[in-house]
Specification:
Helices cover 46% and strands 15% of the residues.
Amino acid sequence: MAGDRGDVAVGVDDGGVATVEIRRGPDNFFDQALIADLAGAFEELAAEGCRAVVLCSQGKHFCAGADFSRPAPSPSGRHLYDEAVRLFAAPVPVVAAVQGAAIGGGLGLALAADFRVGAPDARFAANFARLGFHHGFGLTVTLPAVVGSQRALELLCTGRRIDGEEAARIGLLDRLVALAEVRSEAHRLAAEIAASAPLAVASIRATMRGGLAERVRVATVREQAEQDRLRASEDFAEGVRAMAERRAPQFRGR
């Protein structure tokens, strides 16, 4: 397949490597529709025999997560996390090319990929606690698997930002290159995967990631419930205001 799915553009080269680009720059905030379009693109590419995908974004940042300046989504219909589980279940290897920031749910999206390539000035944060909120997008499962349980707990509880060099040291980035080379390096890694025997790659990936989508599904049930509960708190309202006003939040535990 090639072309657009909403704000998602898709192209495939002769080597069987697809480029899936989010086009909501500069911040590339996501919602249920965008994640559904990404999942649909991954599923179609896999069905057509694509051997690897580069997930990238137009604009300054890879993904700033959800846009909290907009009203909360309606609880009717499919939830964002229903679509996120489809991303984890898609049977095609994915390399994320991370420029700028991958923040909150954007970090969760980066961790849905098998591999991540980024630059030293990239920024990563699971900033939910700084918003008075519970983390989501399956980070309960994916972040500890990549950086270890103790470091994941510290990143989630402090919400602190780390740069690309620290991300590479702790395993959050698989390859660290100059900003101008992020996308080309992601393509090189995807091409290396695509050059391997496709049945072997699929078998290895099924072994290494087997059950991941189901673990994410179970985790997001609790993540969603806690997010819904804390969305009604004064601390969450303060966290969102403080972020918009670019000041330190004053949380009161209620």
